[in-house]
């Protein structure tokens, strides 16, 4: 009984951690200039999105109208998967997840904000009733974003076939599948009590050579995540984002430190935040070295999010 409760606590902290880390990074998402980030006055975490922070620097500002505490499109994608699982009493159904995704990101949906390539293509496929798969050839982080919802259900996600089907809702192709499954193995290990080093090693286990080499590179790199991101890449492909996330997990001493490292690394910080925040939440829990309680209060629509998380992980 205690093991079940312990895993449930880890699962709750993982989902909250993913959402908090995503929202915390929103203000400087896709600012590719670490020197500019380091020079900014005021908070980096839960920073109000402001195009002035991007002026004259490498990057693109896309979060017009967003406020600190809002989710990015990645957090919103995770939320649609949580909603679909809660709708089905803890069961993942790909068609239900597709419907929730379209209800959020399609015309008249609740999402107001940036639509990335994978999301645009998926919406077009769903509108044409192309569902098997509904995704498009794309190797970026939307393919991983919904997986924490599957992994945090009681008993875990099931087999790799189900996880791959969840990836293909938005992202098809071997590279997207292989990197997303590596991220899933990292989080799955963290959810059963693995250390950061053990979790990253689990990501390598059984991975194709390119994925294993990318994670091994994260293990072998120096302490500075900003420098490592500069070497590997700060952009959206999972071949960049998963190794940088792994590097942060290996070197952060707390959830808060991991979130700040992720923001300072620049680029697709919100994309990486889903894996970083989920794994750090699973490892450290809530409070203490885990997700800071005051940060939970910064999330917008927190009451609804909490209810959706409970629908995924089950009641106490």
Please tell me about this protein's structure.
The chain is mainly alpha-helical and 316 residues long. The chain has one domain: ADP-ribosylglycohydrolase fold (Orthogonal Bundle), CATH 1.10.4080.10. Helices cover 60% and strands 1% of the residues. It is built from 17 helices and two strands. It has helices at 2-25, 34-39, 73-87, 94-105, 117-127, 142-145, 147-151, 160-167, 174-191, 196-204, 209-220, 225-232, 238-251, 255-265, 269-284, 293-296, 302-313, and strands at residues 136-137, 171-172. A two-stranded parallel ribbon has the order 1-2. Helix 4 crosses helix 5. It is globular and about 45 Å long.
Secondary structure: number of strands: 2
**Helix-and-strand structural type:** mainly alpha
Low-pLDDT stretches are: none
The CATH class name reads Mainly Alpha
Strand order of the largest sheet: 1-2
CATH architecture: Orthogonal Bundle
Separation of the first and last Cα atoms? 11 Å
The profile of the biggest β sheet is: 2 strands, parallel
CATH level-four homologous superfamily name: ADP-ribosylation/Crystallin J1
CATH topology: ADP-ribosylglycohydrolase fold
What's the pLDDT, averaged over the residues? 96
Helix content: 55-70%
- The whole-angstrom Rg is 18 Å
Strand content: under 5%
> What is the domain tally?
1
Architecture blueprint of SSEs:
Elements: H1 2-25, H2 34-39, H3 73-87, H4 94-105, H5 117-127, E1 136-137, H6 142-145, H7 147-151, H8 160-167, E2 171-172, H9 174-191, H10 196-204, H11 209-220, H12 225-232, H13 238-251, H14 255-265, H15 269-284, H16 293-296, H17 302-313
Parallel strand pairs: 1-2
């Amino acid at each position: 009984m205690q093991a079940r409760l312990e895993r449930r606590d880890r699962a709750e902290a993982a989902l909250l951690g993913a959402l908090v880390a995503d929202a915390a990074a929103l203000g400087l998402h896709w600012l590719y200039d670490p020197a500019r980030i380091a020079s900014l006055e005021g908070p980096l975490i839960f920073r109000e999105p402001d195009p002035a922070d991007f002026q004259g620097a490498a990057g693109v500002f896309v979060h017009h109208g967003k406020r600190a505490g809002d989710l990015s499109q990645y957090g919103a994608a995770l939320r649609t998967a949580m909603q679909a699982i809660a709708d089905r009493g803890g069961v993942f159904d790909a068609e239900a997840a597709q419907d929730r995704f379209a209800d959020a990101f399609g015309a008249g949906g609740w999402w107001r904000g940036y639509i990335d390539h994978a999301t645009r293509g998926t919406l077009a496929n769903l509108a044409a009733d192309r569902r098997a798969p509904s995704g498009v050839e794309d190797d970026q982080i939307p393919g991983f974003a919904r997986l924490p919802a599957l992994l945090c259900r009681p008993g875990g996600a099931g087999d790799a076939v189900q996880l791959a089907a969840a990836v293909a809702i938005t992202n098809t192709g071997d590279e997207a599948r292989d990197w997303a499954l590596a991220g899933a193995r990292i989080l799955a290990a963290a959810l059963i009590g693995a250390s950061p080093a053990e979790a990253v090693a689990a990501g390598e286990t059984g991975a194709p050579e390119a994925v294993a080499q990318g994670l091994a590179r994260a293990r072998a790199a120096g302490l500075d995540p900003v420098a490592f991101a500069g070497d590997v890449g700060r952009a959206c492909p999972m071949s960049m984002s998963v190794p940088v996330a792994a590097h942060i997990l290996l070197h952060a001493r707390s959830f808060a430190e991991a979130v700040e490292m992720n923001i300072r690394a620049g680029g697709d910080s919100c994309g990486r935040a889903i894996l970083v925040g989920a794994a750090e939440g699973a490892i450290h829990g809530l409070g203490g070295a885990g997700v800071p309680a005051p940060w939970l209060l910064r999330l917008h629509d927190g009451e609804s999010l909490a209810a959706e998380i409970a629908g995924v992980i089950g009641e106490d």
